Backbone:
């Protein structure tokens, strides 16, 4: 070694170390920036979702402070954070925690991490160990950032000694962000590295591993298309049929989760609600409902058809992409296992778990009971056996890939089949032609294995004819199912039966309403349920809105909001299934409708009243012991009066408002009767006749007369009565209905007689007051006075 070269040999390691330090820091910065970009992208997406979802809340109820904290907490939940809401005050503390994954935000975070990791690896390729290190760094930075963001942006509000907090900063958020950030970033780096080597991930490994990649692609396509269809259907349902259509604004959050649940139901799995705790046990229903038990027949039919179509789609893709060298038995096991894993993922991500806790220190036994009641856990999601059902789906996909897919591939355009087969094969721009040739050979082998021998023109026409016929049958089946569904929804659904009834009431068609529903009342008491009376009724129901429909064990309850007299009144109607109409259409019968009633005090002898200016015969109406009648009516305002041509009485007009608020309601009313001059004169005449008859008596105690005198001896003669003062009669309305007369001012009767007693005999005289009362009957024309002689 010469003196000139020795210094260079000594400085070479130092120069290498310097270059390494200069290159490592940009990589660290870029790995950290990837996590930051993922977090910012998720925040922007969460902010947009929050703004759109806030449209479902009335403007006067939106709290800007709460809205400003939601995006950060959603990001925390997207990586597995637990959202905990706490309320404390007055010695009581309660908390509720929710573990639920907002899938769209998780997808945003994952996509940015994958793209960021791929971009970094594309700029500076690294070894496997370095890829894990930089990916772990991205996960670590993401974990710290999420924890810091959720903690800083947590809600904390205090008012009137009550404090409310909400935060998704939890250990699961940090761990989830670390795992997701590491794996997603590494996946992006691995994809770029594999393409740079001329062997994409889907083409690495032996035939079994490549078959696994093909099955995973088919399962992913099956899930993606199924969730998309089910999610769109859920949003459409929210817009058209949900009690609160504004919930559709929040669809970006819950639609993917609903799509996963619907995909499980589509494959005849079930939804379970389980938990523990006193409150949960009292509220959570038992059982695991599946699609046929909670959806109409047409929905079940369409769901099964869609599921079969997805199986054929996945089978076709699997047939085109699976390598020809895959072992048959291994291929069956791989497909079944991959779809079983898909079912497991749907079970994990297609639900939510919530739990609550409480503390009530210082309240003794009551505090202990409160704590026990408020503690509990509830989980909502697909049934645990969903993975087994999807393993059966995997069997169907594998079988269809061998029995159905070859014939279907034969009639598909060649360009389409080649695009599907070549998807995921070698497509890197930096690979030489020689390096790509093995991949091209794999593509050719795959196409040759998936495409059967060329068909003759006759055979191809036969296959196409079969496909057309099968497609036509499918279209007819779906169209028929949809037609039946539309008719069941528009004509034969329980909701429509309630609409028909309320439409008749709104239109004033009482006859039609009574045909559609029955009430608990005798025929004689239905005198006010006529078209004439209802059409003349004011303040009746002018509109309605269906709020909620619930079904259980063949019975459906429809809750509606009625518009009456400027008020919103809630009412519910029950319906019972009664088989089918025309074999396919549902038949529903309205249960007894609870109508309001008018409790009227009708005077005895009044056989006709005017209700809403309509003459009503009440002669056959059943009256109570108090003289009142209870008549069912449709909700509205009713005017009660006597006929104007009444000779003996007149009455004031009574206006009664009957509503259906609180179910069957009772509105009381009475007619205030006033006697006419003719009735007063007639009553005076009949009273005078009785008094005159009594004055003609020749005894001191005339029978059936309102006056008498006492004598010391029964031996009297020459008895002569005279009415010295006529009583003043007053006509009033009796408590139990009808009219009565009383004495407003007493009259006087005088008598002269001769006493034939041995001692103190001779002419005598005496007086007595006259006071009469009784009732006045108006039956059959002229009034009839009946005296109360019980005290005479």
Residues:
């Amino acid at each position: 070694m010469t003196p000139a070269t020795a210094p260079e040999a000594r400085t070479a390691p130092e120069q290498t170390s310097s270059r390494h330090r200069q290159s490592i820091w940009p990589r660290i910065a870029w790995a950290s920036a990837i996590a930051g970009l993922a977090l910012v992208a998720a925040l922007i997406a969460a902010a947009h979702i929050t703004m759109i979802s806030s449209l479902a809340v009335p403007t006067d109820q939106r709290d800007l402070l709460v809205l400003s904290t939601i995006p950060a907490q959603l990001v925390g939940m997207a990586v597995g954070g637990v959202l905990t809401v706490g309320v404390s005050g007055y010695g009581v503390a309660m908390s509720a925690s929710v573990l639920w994954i907002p899938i769209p935000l998780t997808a945003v975070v994952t996509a940015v991490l994958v793209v960021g990791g791929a971009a970094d690896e594309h700029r500076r390729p690294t070894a496997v160990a370095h890829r894990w290190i930089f990916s772990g760094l991205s996960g670590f930075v993401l974990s710290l950032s999420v924890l810091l963001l959720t903690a800083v942006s947590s809600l904390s509000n205090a008012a009137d000694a009550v404090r409310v907090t909400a935060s998704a900063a939890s250990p699961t958020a940090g761990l989830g962000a670390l795992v997701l950030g590491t794996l997603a970033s590494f996946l992006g780096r691995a994809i770029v590295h594999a393409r740079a080597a001329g062997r994409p991930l889907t083409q690495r490994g032996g035939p079994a591993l490549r078959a696994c990649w093909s099955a995973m692609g088919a399962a992913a396509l099956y899930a993606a298309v199924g969730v998309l269809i089910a999610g769109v259907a859920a949003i459409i349902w929210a817009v058209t049929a949900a009690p609160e259509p504004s919930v559709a604004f929040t669809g970006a959050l819950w639609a993917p989760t609903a799509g996963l649940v619907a995909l499980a139901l589509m494959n005849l799995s079930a939804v379970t609600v389980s938990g523990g705790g006193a409150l949960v046990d009292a509220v959570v229903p038992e059982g695991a409902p599946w699609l046929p038990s909670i959806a109409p027949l047409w929905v079940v039919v369409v769901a099964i058809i869609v599921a079969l179509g997805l199986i054929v789609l996945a089978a076709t893709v699997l047939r085109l992409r699976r390598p020809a060298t895959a072992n048959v038995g291994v291929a069956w096991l791989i497909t079944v296992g991959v779809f079983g894993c898909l079912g497991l993922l749907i079970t994990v991500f297609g639900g939510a778990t919530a739990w609550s806790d409480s503390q009530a220190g210082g309240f003794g036994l009551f505090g202990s009971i409160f704590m026990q009641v408020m503690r509990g856990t509830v989980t909502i999601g697909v049934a645990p056996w969903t993975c087994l059902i999807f393993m059966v789906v995997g069997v169907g996909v594998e079988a269809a890939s061998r029995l159905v897919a070859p014939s279907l591939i034969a009639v598909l355009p060649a360009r389409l089949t080649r695009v599907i087969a070549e998807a995921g094969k070698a497509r890197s721009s930096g690979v030489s032609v020689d390096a790509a040739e093995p991949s091209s050979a794999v593509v050719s082998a795959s196409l040759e294995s998936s495409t059967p021998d060329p068909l003759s023109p006759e055979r191809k026409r036969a296959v196409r004819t079969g496909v057309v016929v099968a497609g036509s049958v499918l279209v007819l089946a779906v169209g028929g199912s949809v037609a039946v569904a539309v008719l069941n929804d528009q004509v034969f659904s329980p909701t429509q039966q309630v609409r028909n009834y309320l439409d008749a009431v709104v239109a004033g068609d009482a006859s039609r309403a009574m045909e559609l529903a029955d009430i608990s009342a005798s025929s004689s008491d239905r005198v006010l349920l006529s078209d004439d009376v209802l059409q003349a009724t004011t303040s009746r129901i002018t509109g309605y809105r269906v709020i909620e429909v619930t079904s259980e064990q063949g019975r459906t309850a429809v809750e509606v909001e009625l518009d009456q007299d400027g008020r919103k009144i809630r009412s519910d109607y029950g319906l019972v299934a009664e088989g089918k109409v025309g074999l396919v259409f549902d038949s529903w019968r309205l249960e007894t409708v609870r109508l309001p009633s008018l409790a009227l005090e009708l005077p005895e002898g009044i056989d006709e009243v005017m209700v809403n200016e309509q003459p009503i015969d009440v002669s056959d109406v059943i009256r109570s012991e108090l003289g009142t009648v209870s008549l069912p009516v449709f909700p509205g305002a009713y005017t009660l009066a006597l006929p104007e041509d009444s000779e003996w009485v007149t009455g004031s007009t009574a206006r009664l408002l009957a509503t259906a608020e609180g179910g069957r309601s009772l509105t009381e009313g009475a007619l205030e009767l006033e006697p006419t001059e003719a009735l007063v004169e007639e009553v005076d005449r009949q009273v005078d006749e009785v008094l005159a008859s009594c004055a003609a008596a020749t005894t001191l105690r005339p029978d059936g007369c309102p006056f008498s005198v006492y004598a010391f001896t029964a031996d009297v003669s020459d008895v002569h009565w005279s009415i010295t003062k006529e009583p003043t009669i007053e006509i009033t309305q009796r408590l139990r209905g009808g009219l009565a007369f009383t004495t407003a001012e007493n009259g006087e009767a005088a008598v002269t007689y001769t006493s034939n007693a041995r001692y103190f005999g001779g002419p005598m005289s005496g007086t007595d007051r006259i006071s009469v009362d009784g009732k006045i009957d108006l039956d059959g024309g002229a009034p009839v006075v009946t005296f109360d002689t019980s005290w005479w």
